[in-house]
Write a structure and sequence with these properties.
The chain has about 220 residues and is an alpha+beta fold. The protein has one domain: Clam (outer membrane lipoprotein receptor (LolB), chain A), CATH 2.50.20. It has three helices and twelve strands, in the order αββββββαβαβββββ.
Amino acid sequence: MKKAVFILTSFFLSCNLWAASSTEEIIKQVQGTYDKAVDVSSEFTQKVQIKSLEREVEKTGKALFEKPGKLRVEYSGEEGKLYVSDGKKMWVYEKGDTQVQVFNMSAQTIPEEAMAFLGGLGNLRAQFRVSGLSDNEKKSITANSSLDWLLMIPKNPQSQMEELLMGFDKQAHTVTEAYLKNESGNVSHYFFKNVQLNSGLPDTQFTFEKPKGVKEIKN
């Protein structure tokens, strides 16, 4: 992001310094919150704008995360997808299917920045370049002004993720809203509610219970 150029006016310079300090403070507060978190759970709504089809698809579900690298993301509905990881393997299953896909949790199968995020539950600068949003950027996504917003660009040029915009609650410093744009131009818009930290999630949530007759396909 280009730095604004201010000429002969200390007022504008001080405003620029204040904005940079404010962004650093947001990063510090968010990082501190997730550093203290052992687990995070929430309900979510996902709206995906599919560029090639020029339409939007809406889904809902629940997401559970636990250090280090454990997750359970379960989409609602009879044919909703389920992602489960115990930190070593990930199971991807579509309800009612006769097969479940199994992947080893590694940089070869899971995007590097996703691995880093899951491993640290919010290590913002490990794999991303982080900055605040300009007024124009906020307008372009009609950003909720009640949230603190950060723009995250993957450092890895081979990443399938183009950018990630995250809006955080000003008091709890937990994510409330996010936009994820991938290399295909599709944009996923997430809304999170009932976000809870350190609730003591049971280990059974991070183990896939294979339904009778379902075959494992190892990748």
